Amino acid sequence: MKGSYILFIFIPNETRIKIGSMGLLTFLKGYYLYVGSAMGRNGPTSLENRVKRHVSETHLKKLFWHIDYFLASDISELIKIYLIPSLIRLECVLAGEILSVCDNYIKDFGSSDCFCSCHLLYFKDFPEIQRIFNR
User: Fold this and answer.
1) Are strands 23-27 and 15-19 parallel, antiparallel or unpaired?
2) Is the pLDDT confidence value at 72 over 90?
3) pLDDT tens, position by position, 108-118
């Protein structure tokens, strides 16, 4: 299956996490939405397998993408996943929509292969996230 996905991640306390080549970044307490895509028909690039990779134990995978480093942190907690099956890449459209209502974002995170500002968006409070889906 092809498509995009949104990972909902909670950070309970302000912390610093080393994100690969981006270096040590500060993350505020709150909720982060990561928007990704997987456009392969099968194998590691399918939607199902990409999401399985994100939820797998850190020691079972090589840290490669920015999100791998973020999820590997002891403090980050993956709390929800939305799958969006689609034959077209919606990742940048979704990131742009969420960017218009988020409290902040992590510049260049997860967007090294496109022209978006970022694919990791910050919300101070969980209820604020509902603004995205109630529009």
Assistant:
1) antiparallel
2) yes
3) 999 887 888 99
Q: Are 32 and 14 in contact (CB under 8 A)?
A: no
pTM, two decimals, is 0.92
Distance between CA atoms of residues 16 and 125, nearest Å: 20
Whose CA is closest to 36, among 76, 69, 84?
Answer: 84
Strand pairing category for 120-123 and 23-27: unpaired
CA–CA distance, 126 with 55 (Å, rounded to integer): 21
The number of domains in the chain is: 1
What residues does 78 pair with on adjacent strands?
A: 9
Task: Give the three-state DSSP class for 56.
Answer: coil
Please list the alpha-helical segments (H only) found in 74-114: 91-99
How many C-beta atoms lie closer than 10 Å to residue 36's C-beta?
A: 21
The residue segments making up the domain with residue 32 are 3-133
